[in-house]
Amino acid sequence: MVRRLRASLRQLLAQMARRPDVLCGAIALGCLLAAALKFTCSRAKNVVAPARPPVRFFSPDAPVMDLFLGQLEQVDRLRSTSDISFIFFYAPWCAHSIAARDEVQKVARKLSKEVLFIAVNCWWSQGKCRKRQNLYQYPVVHLFYRRFGPIEYKGPFAAAYVEKFIQRVITPVTYLPTQVMLQDFLSYHESGVVGYFDFNASPQPPGYMIFLTSALQALKKDFQSAIRFGVITSRQVAEAISVREDETIYMHRHFNTSLIFPRSERNFTAENICSWAYEHSESILRWLQPPGAKSRLLEQELSKGPALLLFVPFDPLAPHQPLIQQIANISLQYHTCSATEGLGQTTSWDATWEPSGLPSLSESTAPKPPCCNTVVLPAWHGLTRVHNVCELCLNQSIGVRPNAVLAPRCPFYRMEAALDSFYLRQHTFSHLLAHHVACSYIISTYSPFSHYSACCKTLSLPMPAPPPAPEALPLTRAPWEPTDSDPQVAGIAGLKCRTNKTLRFYLLDSHLHWNFAVRLGAQGDESQHLFAAIVNLPDEVHYVLEHRENLAENLERFIQNFSVVYSPLKRHLVGASMPKSSDSLIREVTTVSFFSTVMDPEKDVLLFYYTQWCGFCTVINHVIIQLARLFQGNGKFVVARINVAENDLPWEFMVDHFPVFLLFPSNRKHASVKFPDDLPITLPNLVRFILRHSSDVQRGGDGKWAGPGRSALLEWELRRLRGEVQALRHARERLSRQLSQLWQEKRRLALHAQTLESRNGELQKQGRRLEELYQEKNRQLLDAVSKLQALADASESLLSENALLKILLASLKEKAEPEKRAGDGAEEAAKPDLS
């Protein structure tokens, strides 16, 4: 075969050498074939169509600069033209970006004159935003205050919230020109940081820009702005808080001593001011903003202890929030601890505790004492339970003007010295009788310029309610009032320090997070009203405020009832909706129908505890169905089940694992019995368990369980079971025979299939051999045809050449004949004439 191919190739090359035109044609044909193949393969690579070019994401009439091609290099140029810039990074396919688009457009139409709104497509693969920004979610909002930024917004994408955050960035510092505005600013429940800067000395004090930047740093750290920043430019207003030096930063606190930024200890920078403010801030009411995706925010907060969740309809743009203010006042009273917190605890000094005759802070330069300490003296009589409780406060002697603001801490050595001086003179107060108060001033043994004030009172355990203080008392209000430790009697003031069940106050916007309130027990159509619940996650309980008409009174009573040792509040049980029909074979029980169904005194109830995620519960469903069919028609026995994952029950009816069966006998619901865990859950075991513990079974003389009604029922049930077992056996035998026949038929078909497969294999081999023979003959025929064609072409060329030769010979003959005749004539003429 190879020899034939080589011979054919030699012949072909010899013919091409003899005929160059054939070689040129073959080369041209090969080039055309290669070009066609390249064109076809290049088109086959472009299987995926190129992405469509992006289009404008925002509406053309919206005042938003939409860089839909991802032109990140233009953002800096555009941002330099405006003081406040709002940059919205989005992905066109993102549902959150699409939902936030409408809200951003609403805000842009209102604040377009003050803020520059820029939107950047960070998903376009050819844009620089996609290449430079590593964003893991969309949308992302950055705000810039001139050159400061970015300040990332992490709140809800609602128009009111976004607009409120932009307004805080526009005015991060509140201007306080009068004492009234300063008082309103400091009376708010959030911590307030006030800076005093004298603009008369300099039109642009250098410290003011640092203070302004610190306010922006606070917004960058916490978008909810838990700390408020204010600025004072008037010396008279600054003196109201005992601030006299320029560039002084003052932090007002409700429960502890207000502080001055320690410039001698920390550098005066924006970062230090912001961190110092957050380190010493007080949080009594916190907003929770769950992001709406997978988050552990609620778990982290609720795991800290009992929490009061208040769902309120909140409008961030409203100038006044009376509902929020009421809640803040209640929280402020709850966290305001009295002076009887205990030995060694430092408390804040209330203005009403000052000695009579001294003006308040706004009326005089005399400040409040910096710190106090409660001292409990031992019982002076061993047979009585009477103790002397004294309030010891640090102060300076008269004649030396004290300044509490410049002494933000209670030095340990000073308090220890005060205690030493006090204990040396404690015999002064040993003669006190119950319900009397005595105050005195103790000169320090360490410094002649300091003295300590001590007000003492005898207390008996338990302490009775004291009578009103006499007029001659040096204190307008005793620090230990109210004396009764019961929260329901003493009220909510200082309740945090009088109970071990301390509450944390949290606010949630009911417009955004009403689904959490519904899960806690709220109605589905009350999102415009207040909903309050106390959630104690470690104890797995929560309580719901039922009466919400008079908020202040009912909420205080709700907190007081929770704080007592034996709380009268009832645990709120969350359950699924009632089933539409109760006539099913297995009755479905919910939280609402539990007592009416399970605790029916006239019926024995077998309750099956399950959850939708329990695989073992699903496996034994057929056993429960057989059991329910077995007792179907018995009006005194009910088979029920409850989904514990969706229905809460009282603690005495809960279980610690699944599946569990509990039998509640009639007229003996207190004697409920649990199905043993060591027994397999089968139909006979369940029947024996029910018959043994049901109420109709009586104990016979031999001590065994017996009864006329139950024995007959048992015999009938056993006969029924035997009949079912016999029918199952017959069915099994029939099924076995059918399976045997099917197996034999399957075996025969398998052998037949093997025979057919072998024949098919032989036929395929023969077909392949015939195909190869056909291909060989076809190649030989093609070679013969090519050779014949070459011979035909050669013969045609020879014939044409022969014809040309014939024509040439004929023409040559025609030309030769006249010459021959002329030669013959010359020869004849040359011959002599012999005659």
UniProtKB/TrEMBL annotation:
InterPro entries: Thioredoxin-like_sf, Thioredoxin_dom-contain_11, Thioredoxin_domain, TXNDC11_thioredoxin
Gene3D superfamilies, sorted: Glutaredoxin (3.40.30.10)
Signal peptide (residue range): none
Protein keywords: Coiled coil
Pfam families: Thioredoxin (PF00085), TXNDC11_2nd (PF26234)
SUPFAM superfamilies tied to this protein: Thioredoxin-like
Organism of this sequence: Scleropages formosus
Region Disordered, annotated ranges: 815-835
Coiled-coil segments: 718-780
Family annotation (PANTHER family): THIOREDOXIN DOMAIN-CONTAINING PROTEIN 11 (PTHR46497:SF1)
Protein name: Thioredoxin domain containing 11
CDD domains: PDI_a_PDI_a'_C
Residue stretches making up the Thioredoxin domain: 53-171, 567-695
